Amino acid sequence: VYDDDVASATLSQNSEGQNVITITALNEGNTELVVTTNQGSVRQTINIEVYTEVTSMTEKTEEIEEGQKSSRFLVKNGTYQLLDAQQLISFTPSTSTRKNVVWTFEANGTTEYDGASISGNQIFVPDTFASNEIVLRATSANNSDVYTTVTITCIDQIDVSNIRIGASAYETSGFDFTTS
């Protein structure tokens, strides 16, 4: 009998007298099961990896408290920006460690759309991008049947060359109010 936090194993014999090892997953993680003959002269190590697949994904809703700013936007500026799946998607089960996703554009199912492009978890949105939002499809990297769509606002980059900051001061003194 073998037991740790990741897996447990039991030894039994089948109807033909052969030894059968039954391994039961307990928690996500990695462990090793070392099997040794009764005489101890032969040893075999079995590497065990236990994981939980994501069974569903949904777009997270963003609740913005007063005074906070939204983090769900992309700037149309022609630089690559990070797509953070943990921030944008709720995974079920939430304890799964297999939360890798493949990003594509929902409009055409590819990584290129209207001048914008996706490379891994980075997205490039040119300043010429026509829409004010972009709809992405996030598909589980381990199961193409598990996916969700994510809508992100696209904003124009502020042209700082047209911003002027100035200051002026003046002094006033001695007001004489008369009533009539």
What does this structure look like?
The chain has 180 residues and is mostly beta strands. It contains one helix and 15 strands. The chain has one helix at residues 85-88; strands spanning 2-3, 7-13, 19-25, 29-36, 43-50, 56-59, 73-76, 80-82, 89-92, 101-105, 112-113, 116-119, 122-124, 133-140, 147-156. A four-stranded mixed β-sheet has the order 7-15-14-10, with no helix packed on it. It has a four-stranded antiparallel β-sheet with strand order 8-13-12-11, with no helix packed on it. A three-stranded antiparallel β-sheet has the order 1-2-3, with no helix packed on it. The longest helix has 4 residues, at 85-88.
Task: Give a concise summary.
The chain is mostly beta strands and 180 residues long. It has one helix and 15 strands, in the order E-E-E-E-E-E-E-E-H-E-E-E-E-E-E-E.
Regions with pLDDT < 50 over 5+ consecutive residues?
none
Fraction of residues in H or I helices: under 10%
Whole-Å distance between the termini? 104 Å
Instruction: Tell me the radius of gyration.
Output: 30 Å
Let me know the number of strands.
Answer: 15
How confident overall, as mean pLDDT? 86
Overall geometry comes to elongated
Name the helix and strand elements from N-terminus to C-terminus, one letter apiece. Answer: EEEEEEEEHEEEEEEE
Largest sheet: number of strands, sense, barrel closure? 4 strands, mixed
Structural class: mainly beta
Spatial arrangement of strands, main beta sheet:
7-15-14-10
Strand residues, percent: 35-45%
How many H/I helical runs?
1
